[in-house]
Amino acid sequence: MNCTIKKFYYGDIPEDNSGSSNQPASNVSANSWPLWEVFIRSKQGLDHKHVGSLHAADATMAIENARDVYTRRQEGVSIWVVESKHITASNPDEAGELYEPAADKIYRHPTFYDLPDEVGHM
Amino acid sequence: MQVQDLEKIFQDKIDAEIKIEPKDWMPEAYRKTNIRQISQHAHSEVVGMLPEGNWISRAPSLKRKAILIAKVQDEAGHGLYLYSAAETLGSSRDEMIADLLSGKAKYSSIFNYPTLTWADMGAIGWLVDGAAILNQVMLCRTSYGPYARAMVRICKEESFHQRQGFESLLVLSKGTTEQKAMCQDAINRWWWPSLMMFGPKDSESTNSDQSMKWKIKRKTNDELRQQFVDMAAMQVKVLGMTLPDPDLKWNEERKHYDFGEINWEEFWNVVKGNGPCNKQRLAARNKAHDDGAWVREAAMAYQAKKEKKRNAA
After folding, report:
1. For labelling, which of A92, A96, B4, B223 has a CA lying 20 to 30 Å from the CA of B46?
2. Global confidence as pTM
3. Interface contact flag, B94 A13, Cβ < 8 Å
4. Tally of domains within chain A
5. Residue A63's domain spans which residues?
């Protein structure tokens, strides 16, 4: 038995301790189903919210799979799917510059304005 | 920016409890550890369907059959949540599945034990899912955003798994002499493997604990295991059954239950592929994957045909 046991946890077995066969993954298919992002409206009147992603051959199958994967307990009344490759995301490394213009405009907030109490709720 | 600076910013974020998101900079080892852990977790959900699937056609009533199907469906769903979380780290689904099928990737050893009687369905729900839940509740606060969000969804669904298992044992525990014996036998067989699910003892660690520093994990193996023993030792009394450990005793000073030594030789043996069902489980996964190949291809061919039609119109 290996005496220098490294710490590992349930769900995290290091490969060198696992007696794995280390065979290279050979049967990776070039023709695999594309990835879709799934958005669900949990009830009428609320926005669609991103819930995760899944693989499907086409949009119809993506909706059906999304129903099975993300709404088994009536979590949704409407589903949007979009192929992940069509999503453009902002770059977190540029977050500073991107959001900087909003940082010094405190006058955009109602609390910037001091009004006499007599005005009441405004 | 220097790598050391990036690492400092990264660790500062973790220390400030700010989640790491897919496009954020992260150390390569953090990415790798997460991919390994999340995909192993996903594989465990997928392989975890097999021991229970064995009993769907043999469930003692329509009600139990419906419950078991729902539970197995949840496990498929949990596997999918986790695979998609791992994919955000740049590992492809095909690679992960291929690693599972070739035996390169691991899954929780608990699923390499056989399910011999109907009572095993109850014992798995109560003990195996109970042990998994403790780990999963902790992981709801893990530092990698997509993993934490997947765990929140899983935890919401997992509680039903444990409750139905305990309730199923409760029914047996009030049944005939044979049913009571079956209940006790299942508990006896699943108790020790469930304790092993938490992994080796903390004292056997020779490495500094990077996973804790990165807050991928937030509790040690022994902490979680103790929490589990304390819980189960109380709950087994409700069943009027016993846990198969003569050393199990309340320790007034520690305010915890003391318990006996785990058979670590058995643990490592099963991890290394020599458990009772390792070969059977992998063979079943490989067969399902191979038998489903034509369906996956047909779906893509159908999609291509529709696309062509749309373009022509």
Report:
1. B223
2. 0.89
3. no
4. 1
5. 29-87
